[in-house]
Amino acid sequence: MQLEIKALISLLGISILISSCSYRNEKESKFEVSFNSALADKVSYQLINERILIPKCISCHGDSGNINLESYNDVFGHIEKIKQATIITRKMPKSPYPALTNEDLELLATWIQVGAPEKPLDGTDQQPPVKYEPLEPTFKSINKNILQNKCIFCHAPGKEAERVPLDTAESMIDSPLEIVIPGNSEESGLIISTSPNARKLMPPKKSGIAPLKPEEIEIIKQWIDNGAKD
Amino acid sequence: MQILKNVALSLSLTALLSANAMGAVTLGKAAELACHRLEKLVSLGKAEESFITKFSSLEISKLQPSKPADPAFKVTISQHAGSDGSSKQIDIMLDVNGKGIAQIVKPGPEASNAPVWSDKDALSLVEYALHYVSDSDDADLKPFLNGLTSLKLKQMKNDNGTSARVVMNSKETTKTLEVNLNENGSVESTNSIIAE
Questions:
Q1: Are A224 and A188 in contact (CB under 8 A)?
Q2: In whole angstroms, what is the distance from residue A179 CA to residue A161 CA?
Q3: Spatial contact of B144 and B130, defined as CB atoms under 8 Å apart
């Protein structure tokens, strides 16, 4: 009975939204993001979290002291700000972090329009395919889970901090700065500069990016001490 | 037997020359890498923090390595002088690619009258100046990247406040380069002047 009422309310909400809502009509927005009715009953927090929040927001909006977006309640509590910053004014993600794609924006706009539900409104409660890979002491895993989210915006060829390249294992090992010394994590620059007591802590505080977590540093140490081979 | 010796000698020379040709860094770049090396040594507790906060000058020379792993650069970094006029120093040896090979810390008296920097530390200011020279397309600055022999950090005070000046010398020119920086490390101006 309760499920039926919920479904009814959801359908009613979707119908109203489909017929009336589109961000292109927002007075203050100069951007156009369309509501996608085909996605309306399928979008969920889990999907948004995997597709958008984790790869594009959490590096700053984790435990860095900024608005925290690591749980559904946190996200839901800031939903108006999120809408304003990402869809209406497009101020987020801030440069140099990658902008939201049109597909991201459509997904996010649709999700917000249908009430930012934690689970899909069609009642399937199906989890999206898990794309998140657990952190492991391999370059592939470290690159995907840490470097791409917290470092590569600046530390790659053509970027602000290209003189300290972190884009490939080889560039870190070959650098005269000894960013990675295979078998010697203690003297590797990557560990020295990301440790909590570092003189010049990376990522820098002013970047807004959360510092590396102890478990992330530990995994990098393991990778280096194992020879930084793969 | 003599032939074998000659072949071995030729192979060694070829390896050395190719290593030099492939990876040799300029004197200016080597100086910059030595500064970064010093920061790391301080972080590892192998050199005193005062080398960073009381940095005064740097001298660099090219060595003649007999094999690729030998030191190719010797960089001597000095703190401000102590009460007896001498100063704490550190020699940093770099290979042909600018990678740190060894270091020797030379004891000395505590620096006296070293300027205090309010934003960036002394060594970072020098690094910013070297980065600027390294990244610049200005032809007047190239001799200081390719032929740097020494540099000195000075604190300047005027009506606008405190600023930093890194004075560089090169074996490729009789001119002296002054790189003027704000205390936050941003470069304000450069002057290439005839040395007195």
A1: yes
A2: 13
A3: no
Q: CB–CB of A199 and B43 under 8 A?
A: yes
Which residues of A fall within a CB distance of 8 Å from B100? 176, 178
Give the span between the Cα atoms of A94 and A67, in whole angstroms: 14
Contact A178 B94 (CB under 8 A): no
pLDDT tens, B145-193? Answer: 999 999 999 999 988 899 999 999 999 999 999 999 999 999 999 998 8
Task: For residue A41, give the nearest of A129, A122, A139 by alpha carbon.
Answer: A122
| Distance from the B3 Cα atom to the nearest Cα atom in chain A, whole angstroms | 36
Return the percent helix, strand and coil in chain A, to nearest 5. 45, 0, 55
Report the C-alpha gap between B103 and B71 in whole angstroms. 11
Dihedral of CA A121/A126/A129/A133: which sign? positive
- Closest-CA distance of chain A to residue B1, Å: 38
At B7 the three-state DSSP class reads helix
ipTM exceeding cut-off 0.85 for this assembly: no
